[in-house]
Amino acid sequence: MSVPLVEVVRSGFRESVHHGSVALLDADGRDAGCLGEVLAPVSPRSANKPFQALALLRAGFAPLSDADLALSCASHSGEPDHVARVRGLLATYGLTEAALRCPPDLPLFPSARNRVLAAGGGPAAVTMNCSGKHAAMLATCVRNGWPTEDYLSAEHPLTAAVSETIAELTGEQPGPPGVDGCGAPLFTLSLTGLARAYARLVTAPAGSQEARIAHAMRAHPRLVAGTGREDTLLMSAVPGLLCKIGAEGAWALALPDGRVAALKIDDGASRARQPVGVGALRALGVTWTPELAELAEVPVEGGGRRVGSVRLLPGVLS
């Protein structure tokens, strides 16, 4: 069963509690203090994106730069550089935005969203947070001569390639694909399997495709997420950290030596994810810094000012 992990405190009163599970593995892949249910299937959502990108590389995707590769793993904020790079990746392969099958959306970053609206624009596929992954999927189809119209189909060769890659990295056989929020096929796996897969990425031999993905994401953390987002903040704060959030409270975080955490918040609350992720890093032995201490709690506001925080329950991950 999952366990209580996070409390929401407002004006000194515990207002809510979030439950979840955390898989913690040491550098040898052994249990380093797992909490809750870490062997049952969960939906990692966008935390699967590095594995999807690896499948694309293996299938012939040839990004022109590590920045493009980082974007293919991203849940980006739709900031101008994100959107420009998606358009550039599509153009490299003779494609336009019309080829994208992710749903139209406004940018996640407030100022980027306001800029689009002020210019009379609206939701678009290219500003949807998964458009980098979709552009990379389309590029892979072009490289292989595969059809682009149905690249999200469960029967498409891309889907088979992703399933095989996830099975290899996790040591688990994923079930039949579901449908992610962006429309792409989605595979479930255990938190232990998710952690094991991230460990394989960060400990892969130099020059391997796995190592290239880890390097690209760590070299371009703002492209992986965006201004003020968890992945950008944590990868910038902790040397060598590789991490990627997923919707509904999922997150995986891996250190260069293979120590890794994978977590899922039961109720899907994104506000609970950051305190658990930062606490997991501390439990894995990451040097505690003022920057991490600040990220360990998410502010709770009232009347336009901070009146509390979202934080780990006392004694959890200690």
Structure report:
The mean pLDDT is 97. It is built from 12 helices and 11 strands. The protein starts with a strand and ends in a 6-residue tail after the last strand. By secondary structure, the protein is α+β, with helices and mostly antiparallel strands.
Helix-strand layout with pairing:
Elements: E1 3-10, E2 13-25, E3 41-42, H1 49-58, H2 66-72, H3 80-92, H4 110-118, H5 131-144, H6 157-170, E4 178-179, E5 185-186, E6 189-190, H7 191-202, H8 209-219, H9 221-224, H10 230-237, E7 242-246, E8 250-254, E9 260-265, H11 273-283, H12 290-295, E10 298-302, E11 305-312
Antiparallel strand pairs: 1-2, 1-11, 2-9, 3-6, 4-5, 7-8, 8-9, 10-11
Helix pairs in contact: 1-5, 1-6, 1-8, 2-5, 2-8, 3-5, 6-7
Characteristics:
about 325 residues; alpha+beta; two-stranded antiparallel sheet; 12 helices; globular
